[in-house]
# Entry
Amino acid sequence: MQVGSLLRQLDPSHLAAPHRSLPRAVHCWIEEQLTNQLQVPVLKSRDTEAKGKGGLLCDLISEQDNHQLNSRSPVHVWGDFSDCVESERSQRMGNACIPLKRIAYFLCLLSALLLTEGKKPAKPKCPAVCTCTKDNALCENARSIPRTVPPDVISLSLANNNLQTLPKDIFKGLDSLTNVDLRGNSFNCDCKLKWLVEWLGHTNATVEDIYCESPPEYKKRKINSLSSKDFDCIITEFAKSQELPYQSLSIDTFSYMNDEYVVIAQPFNGKCIFLEWDHVEKTFRNYDNITGTSTVVCKPIVIETQLYVIVAQLFGGSHIYKRDGFANKFIKIQDIEILKIRKPNDIETFKIENNWYFVVADSSKAGFTTIYKWNGNGFYSHQSLHAWYRDTDVEYLEIARTPQALRMPHLILSSSSQRPVIYQWNKATQLFSNQTDIPNMEDVYAVKHFSVKGDVYICLTRFIGDSKVMKWGGSSFQDIQRMPSRGSMVFQPLQINNYQYAILGSDYSFTQVYNWDAEKAKFVKFQELNVQAPRSFTHVSINKRNFLFASSFKGNTQIYKHVIVDLSA
# Structure
């Protein structure tokens, strides 16, 4: 008898649980080999001779020591065999001796064969809902999807099952398929079926034409003719990530010494709080702070390798701080003239022809919106704009007056007393000059700009009435879209990767997040956020992660993570 044929009689449980007895045929084969190969005589008992069952070892296994052997490992059992054979041989054949080493060697070899040769994994059986032959699997009118199919089938039919979708791995391992029939199903051609379209594009199997039943825009379209580009399966959302236990107004981000930081203006405790990214905990943590009084804006500006922070305050004057690398702290280096800046409301920094500037929008009746220029040692007053108009916001942008002209620096000042005013940079005088205003847009609190495919747009925030999106037409801004915005003080456009958003905050309702629709060339509603009295929204990109910081004048500062989800996965 061959080893392989004997081993195939073994149940896997004999290997998993060595204490169980082995099949009778194996024991008899051991006896035969001991007799023929190692010259161990066959000693038969009287019962064995009468019944013609085999040798002494078989009797020992099956009758005399069955209970004991079942409770012992195969190695111990085989040791008993050798002891038994040696004992009987000594009694009947005198002093003749068989070397135990030869027996031990033989038994070790046998044990290795038993342990290394096992059963092959069983092939998947034909599903109960299918009818299978050697090469075919017919699963029609089953009303359910078979989970396993024999891997060597050549033809598979899932026709007439009224299926709306298919699991992504249904054809996995079926490398021999040459024909697939999916007709007679009501497929919903959404992102869950995108994988089937991709599979149809590269499979060598013949697939009869199948059609979409839904959604309406794809009804009766041939699935075989669709491509993966027909499925828009990537969606995004802003998911709550962290909450900071304090109110805030302005939030800015900046890069300094190869790291990213966030600075938050806290109006009630008068601080500029600096945050850094904790690479271990994956959260934002405190880095440093500047203490003041009624802080409304903390504006960072990095000139060469030096960090400066302009701190605008409602009381006690506004100041400029410098980061001292040796002392590892912020040091006040300059006061901003209090006669011009009485009630600062916004600060914008910009660079023109390698010169750094910042402008402060002053909202007091007697103040001046003023531009300051860096002279190598500090900032000095460069130009005063818009005296006594109570400006609430200033925005720097570059636009071209004609399609062929180069873009020039501009400032847009928003005011509670008149329409937004546009100033253009004069290269000869190195000053801004008044050009025009934006008509029919009274009571604009703030203006923020963004670009799409080279076109310049602005978002105009109104506390009463509709906020607007306008597009630069070469000589003026033109209406594109209106958004209801009762109680809004911020309408912030921002871009994250290839996604253009606009976020409209409100003191009386949920914050509305809009996503730019390229085909419609306008914003569409995207998501709602619950932020109390929001005043600013800032995009922060750190360590390949994108976050949205939402300041709150009446509640906690919120941090959202920008999440990208593939619905076809």
Remarks:
- The longest strand covers residues 234-244.
- The radius of gyration is 41 Å.
- Residues 1-21, 40-97 have pLDDT under 50 and may be disordered.
